[in-house]
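Exam prep: given the inputs below (a chain plus zinc ion), describe the expected output before reading on.
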Amino acid sequence: MYHDVVPEGRPEVSGFPGTAGSRYKLEEAGFAEHLDGLQATSLGFGLLAGDGPCPPAAFTFDDGGSSALHVAEELERRGWRGHFFVTTGRIGMPGFVTADEVRELARRGHDVGSHSHSHPKYMASLSDAAILEEWARSRDELHELLGRPPRTASVPGGFLSGSVIAAAERVGYGVLLTSVPSARLHRHGAMWVTGRFTILSSTSPARAVAFATGDARACGSQWAAYVIKDAIKRVSPAAFDALRRVAGVRD
Ligand SMILES: [Zn+2]
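Solution:
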């Protein structure tokens, strides 16, 4: 799970602003090193089709930042395509993809999916009606833009619940990607659900390779950290924010 890819020292040019967002942004040179490392594995990077054959590994890019076309070119140079999850309420705003760019990504064979409409920080804490509205509005807007409904969605903010999953299925998505660090694919009604491994700006190319190849140690350590963070969020999102502030991570 990648986010934005930005020029050196300029995290503000793509995606959500602020220090918390910057933790997820790779610089262009670093991203190219990741891709070179991943290319050396000879893994086949494909797109998740749900009911179709599952690729060994897949690239996903959350938020819909304006770096998407640069990312797409880097993937295409290596013969790959990726999943781009767009926050539809941000389309055309500074730092985010335009409607034309969304169409361009799809035209070039990438998968464009939903990353909710407004990117709520803690989607699972919203009412069921509000969660449904986030998934439905985003799907309608992408349908309008692309001429067909998007098949895929990814959960914003990484805060998952049964309601978030159930609403995505009810609205009609075929594949939902979460931030749970697990490659296990399971079914929820008519929809497939799978986790992802988070790449931060501090993640080395070797670690990205370890995630892509299912290295038990790398995957297990991200899982252990996730379990602790998720437990704190579930007790209190406010306590989680306070801990992040103590740790020096600010929005
Ligand atoms: Zn996001």
